[in-house]
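[audit] Reproducing an earlier prediction to check determinism. Same input, same settings, fresh worker. If the tokens differ from the archived copy the diff job will pick it up downstream; this log only records the rerun itself.
[audit] input (191 residues):
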Amino acid sequence: MRVIAGSVKGIPLKAVPGQSTRPTTDKVKESIFNIIGPFFDGGYALDLFAGSGGLGIEALSRGIDFTVFIDRDRKAIETINANLEKTRLTNQAEVHRADAKRAIKVLKKNDFKARLLFLDPPYHEASFYDLMDFAAHQGIVTDGAIVVCEHEKQAELKDRTACFKRIRKENYGGTVISIYLHEKEEGEQVE
């Protein structure tokens, strides 16, 4: 596992010890960023269920200004911090050990607005994908925000939610990536 492109390209990243998380493979990570845009011109990202922090760190390397990493697992938090230090991106990040829903509520109080949201919960917890609408209702995503959901093949996510429209779905073996775009409530795309 490594940073694929950008300012810290090639730096290897640590995986979370044990079996509690499943890291996004380099192949899948590269595909995600080829789909959502290879590089960014600033903005904030939110990496929920961050694991090793690989997706949020990749976004920072590719031009996102700041990423907030959220995970409940102590080992994951330690791994994210180690990976941020190794890539020298600590000043562009916040790392919190917290429940995802509670973290979203706290971010709302801090007027946080993400243009990019990574949602990679434990595969057996399909209800966690509802957090993208919760984040939109809390006002912590920008107009036109992109949500990247990583899920297992058996988890059928909706093409439309209250606030998002799926714009792409890619299958990588047992892993599926669904990309969503934030929409206005009437279904009209946000400019």
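[audit] rerun output stored. Observation attached for the diff report: The two ends are 35 Å apart (CA to CA).
[audit] end
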